[in-house]
Every structure is written in C-alpha cells, then in structure tokens.
Amino acid sequence: MKSFGMHILAYDPFITEEKAKQLGLSLAPLETVLREGDFITVHTPLTNETRNLIAEDEFKIMKPGVRVINCARGGIINEAALAKAVAEGKVAGVAVDVFTKEPPTGNPLLESDKIITTPHLGASTAEAQVNVALAVADQILTIAKGGLPTNAINMPAISPETLAVMEPYMSLAEKMGALAGQLMGSGFESLELIYSGTVAEKDIRPVTISAIKGLLACLMGEGIVNFVNAQGMLKEMGVKLLESKTESANGYSNVITLKLNKKGTTTTVQGTVTGTREKRIVHLNE
Questions:
Q1: If you placed Cys at 257, which of 140, 194, 198, 279 could pair as Cys (CB 3.0 to 4.6 Å)?
Q2: Alpha-carbon distances of 246 from 201, 202, 254, rounded to whole Å
Q3: Residues annotated as part of the active site
Q4: What is the DSSP string of 77-100?
C-alpha cells in the first residue's frame, strides 16, 4: 500500500505503537479504520472474536465506493452483507480468495462482476517456492551444526531425554504466561524472563517458547498460537523479549520470573517446580 502513496490506518490490538511506527502504520480504532478507509483489507485469523467482524452495520459506516479485500479467512467478513453492499453500490469492488464454505458452491460472492474471486494460492508463486527451498536448506544447515530448527512441524526440536526433564518447567511457564496475559491484557511492550537456580543450568529455549505460547494464546485464542509460531508472532507484534539467568533463587531450588511491561506498568509472576515436579506460582506482582 505504501508503494502506491497511501496513508495506512490499522486496527491491531496486539502490536505496540513503536512497532506500528516501524511498519509505517497509524493505529486507530476499528470504527475509524472502517469510516476512513478507501481500501479495506483483512489480515486476521478466524476466531470467535473475529467471526463476522465486518457485517451489515460495519458496511453502513464505510465510505461510498470503498473497496474490500479479504485474503485472510472466510467468515471474518459476513458474505451476505458483503454481497448486499456490492449490489447496493456501497462497495465498488471486492477481491477475496477465502470463503466461509469451501468449495464456495452457490456463494453470492460468485454472482457479481464487481467481485474478483480466486483460490487461496498465494504461496504458489515462483518467488514463494524459491523462498521455501532456501528456508529448507537453511534449516538443514542449522540442524547439521547442532542447532534447533525454527520451522518444526509441531514444536522446536528437543531430545526425548531433555523433554522429560524440561516438561514441568515448560508447563509452568505456559501457565505463567497465560496468567500474566489475563492480568495485563494486550498492548504490552516487552516480555522479560529470568531463570534462577538450577533451571538456569538447563536449555531454557523451549521454556521461553512455552511462556510466549501461554501469553499469546490467552489473548488470541487456542489453536492460533503454537510452539512453532509463538516466538515469531511475538516479534511481529514488536514486543521485546529479554532473557537472563541468575544463580540465586531466593530460597527455592529454581525460580522462573516473568515480567510483562506496558507503558511503565509491570505485571510480575514467579513460579517454581518442586522436587516432586509440582508446579507452583510463588509470587504475583511483588
């Protein structure tokens, strides 16, 4: 959009103002985006919160002649309301490659010359296939050098022996992330994780990813965030990730401290794994 000289308004409750500025976006409430947009594009997963996010009432406040693009998921834009807005002339043009029901047999969006429809095949361009090949080669080199892959199918590579040791810490960190997210809400600017005591001697990478997964999943919904995409999603949101290790665990054999920061306000959660592998929250906002 910027290459066409457009001013970009964006509604995103998860990214920070700093990240928005880096991307050249001006954050605004959803209603403002809908009222002022000449081209409205959708880039969100389909969840209970985003289903029918744009429906008949939302089309009523849009500019006459607005153009709408949905390459995200079917169901975010109410298809009947969209077809009606096109038929009435409120929406001048539409481009979609996703539908509520696929294949979209009998879909009203197929009946108008003002609506361009295609399959959801954006990743099948020649350039995308080259990038995939490069990513695969890069991962093979990483693994050959003893590193962890960043694009595992279901979670970062970790040996069964290490997983057996780290599982209670991973579970604890995920619960701590979810708790902090519920207390702080969206819009946080940094996530800090401090590993103290015996846990600091271990490979804490899967623990960090577990904390991020719990944090983002409580805000975006289960099934959206997983062990594969959690860290990348946090980075895309512009949230700074800080990690450190200390020997002292304040009387415990191990402690994980999670700090979530938002405009000078900090939510702190501390947890430990006992000798019997029980997971406990030991401090909250202290």
A1: 194
A2: 9, 12, 10
A3: 73, 102, 120
A4: B-HHHHHHHHHTTSEEEEEES--S
Count Cβ atoms below 10 Å from residue 67 Cβ, excluding itself.
17
Put simply, whether the predicted model's pTM sits higher than 0.70 gets the answer no
Query: All domains of the chain, ordered by start, with CATH?
Result: 2-122 (3.40.50.720), 160-284 (3.30.1330.90)
pLDDT (tens digit per residue) in 186-233: 889 999 999 999 999 888 888 999 999 999 998 887 778 888 788 889
Q: Which two tokens stand for residue 38?
A: 């000449």
Q: Could you tell me if 153 and 204 are in contact, meaning their C-beta atoms sit under 8 angstroms apart?
A: no
- 3-state SS class at 245: strand
Do strands 265-273 and 254-262 pair parallel, antiparallel, or not at all (unpaired)? antiparallel
CA distance 236 to 61: 30
CA distance 286 to 283: 6
Distance CA 41, CA 35 (A): 13
CA angle 58, 90, 49 (to 5 degrees): 20
